[in-house]
Amino acid sequence: MFPIYKYQPLEIPESIRVLVLHPAQNLNDPLQCDLVHRHRRQIPLSLDSNTNYYEAVSYAWGDCIFSRDLICGGNQLIKITPNVDSMLRRLRRISKLRNLWVDSVSINQRDMDEKRVQVPLMGQIYHQASKVHVWLGDADQEVGKVFAFLRTLATVGNDNVTLQLIREILVNLWGNTSTEAVDLFLQRPWFQRRWILQEIAFSREAIVRCSTLKVSWEWLVNGLENLRLACEYGLELGNRAIISLHTMCNLHKDGGRILGLLWDFDSAKCSDPRDRLFAIYSLARDISYDKTEGLQQRKQKIHAPLDYNANEDDLYSAFATSCIDSGHFLEILRHVLAFG
To answer: What residue range is the signal peptide (predicted)?
Structure first.
């Protein structure tokens, strides 16, 4: 039995940990890796021949039951969740190393000071990744048809989307007009997750994966956009699927105001209440992490408290106070009236 892996502190704030996933011939072979420190500024933005590049992964943690083993450095263990275990097995190559950034492993989750430094960098970390793998979980027998459905929808111009067309596509794939498989697909936990907002918004290229099945992000989101139009015309989906559609179709790379983002993505979930703020900080254009900025700059920006040692009540109070100090009292009141 190997001892639990002991994280070495990152040398400087610009450093990250890259998970170097070892190859294996068989899916069920033990997962093995090395964790290496990399200076983010020295990582290239293209694959070329440099071994320092990495790919990032966007996924839902699932239940925080760390029951699976990831062997690190040949003689230490990192405990991971079943979903991360399945994800790494599918991303593992047969004969080549794979460089990944996986937040649950690449950030020392027990070190709150490290999280305070790394979390503001996550938007940049996902942008600098050569590719982002969106892991939706293991596939069921319907996922292949759902991918085909969305690919077909993606080829249709917005002006040509009709209920009749949608029903014809459904019949061609399933033999009936039921949207049950699509509905269940959109209820997968990843679509409800709050952290995906910045992970996708900052990615330069993304591939969506279910087990061995995959589709490009562009195909997926274009298909979902047309599916949203069909819902406006009367196509019926469940409430959770509708919420997923709303989230996917409201992602925007240029960011926005922090209070606007909180409003638009209120339904997006996170397990830690503090992440309701932390998960969208990178998307906001009007926040600052620095209390020492000049008075004029502070009037234009909202101070973003980021402290995993603070409880959520103190954090929310500090954030609301900062918003009010920046002239957003009425908007804060609107949020309180809408969401409690």
So the answer is: none
